[in-house]
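Structure first, sequence second, as always.
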């Protein structure tokens, strides 16, 4: 995932991080809600920690991709990002299964999918999702995408225009949020962090402390307290340093100053396609948001065609953990009308 644009040095320090000074690394201890603490109930609706689905699996490039496959009809393909899995969509999927086929894979190396010995670059992840779609024979796809899943989904849509019917997206990796011209134009805490991510200190933080699961997700990406059972579901796929490699490579793929070149080119190409395409689009956003703060939403509203927007309320990056029922209801309503 990309970092939060409003993230301040004070907030990083408050959550236990030591920011880089004269080449030092970042150390952090993650926090989570006490198991006895009740989750927030936005709009009076419970956010369930339960995952009421049985996963299937399919072979892609010699590795098993685990996925949810519920309902029947036109496929609605849910694509997650870092450091999540199909678990992110657990409260949203039931809103579409009455008339559609909801398909939600775990990215390669994440969730219950296999962990092959690959680099987990953007293009490697994209190739596995391309293969997954082919293996299931999905056509006339409605994409529901978030974080790095948005970049992968948009890439697939621009390269396979006859196979994608519509796109719903939230907290997406697309211009004008990304690419970023350079570390120095970012807020200092954020620039320092992303420089560090590409060093051995960053590797130790993310692989050793499971930083994206233990800290980014519950303390920087979600306003409500995450329950112990929710955290365990996100923690379970990454029990060892080696298993956490995807969560390290994803932030290293964020295009900053033209690097990495391949991810930068793909995100820019996605932006060109998105702003030129007339495919039906649905944007969910929150306040203050992370990748889609108010200026980004205003830009998209002005520049994108065939776009519908839905404001969810207060939220940061993982909006599915803040407002799953509003997303599900909005998605179901939009699907009936496109």
């Amino acid at each position: 995932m990309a970092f939060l644009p409003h993230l301040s040095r004070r907030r990083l320090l408050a959550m236990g991080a030591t920011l880089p000074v004269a080449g030092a690394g970042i150390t952090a201890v993650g926090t989570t809600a006490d198991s006895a603490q009740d989750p927030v109930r936005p709009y009076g609706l419970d956010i369930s920690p339960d995952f009421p689905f049985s996963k299937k699996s399919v072979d892609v490039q010699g590795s098993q991709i685990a996925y949810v496959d519920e309902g029947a009809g036109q496929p609605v393909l849910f694509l997650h990002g870092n450091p999540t899995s199909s678990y992110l969509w657990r409260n949203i999927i039931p809103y579409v299964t009455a008339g559609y086929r909801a398909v939600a894979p775990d990215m390669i190396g994440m969730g219950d999918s296999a962990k092959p010995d690959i680099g987990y670059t953007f293009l490697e992840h994209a190739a596995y999702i391309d293969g997954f779609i082919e293996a299931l024979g999905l056509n006339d796809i409605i994409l529901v995408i978030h974080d790095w899943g948005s970049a992968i989904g948009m890439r697939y849509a621009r390269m396979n225009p006859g196979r994608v019917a519509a796109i719903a997206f939230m907290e997406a990796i697309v211009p004008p949020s990304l690419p970023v011209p350079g570390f120095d134009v970012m807020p200092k805490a954020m620039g320092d962090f992303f420089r560090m991510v590409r060093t051995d200190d960053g590797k130790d933080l993310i692989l050793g402390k499971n930083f994206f699961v233990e800290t980014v997700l519950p303390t920087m990406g979600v306003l409500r307290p995450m329950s112990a059972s929710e955290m365990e579901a996100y923690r379970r796929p990454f029990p060892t340093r080696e298993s956490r490699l995807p969560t390290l490579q994803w932030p290293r793929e964020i295009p900053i100053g033209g690097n990495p070149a391949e991810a930068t080119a793909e995100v820019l190409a996605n932006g060109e396609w998105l702003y030129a395409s007339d495919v039906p689009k649905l944007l969910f956003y929150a306040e203050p948001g992370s990748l889609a703060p108010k200026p980004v939403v205003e830009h998209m509203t002005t520049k994108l065609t065939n776009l519908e927007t839905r404001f969810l309320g207060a939220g940061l990056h993982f909006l599915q953990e803040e407002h799953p029922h509003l997303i599900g209801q909005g998605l179901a309503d939009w699907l009936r009308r496109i």
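Margin note: The CA atoms of residues 75 and 287 lie 30 Å apart.
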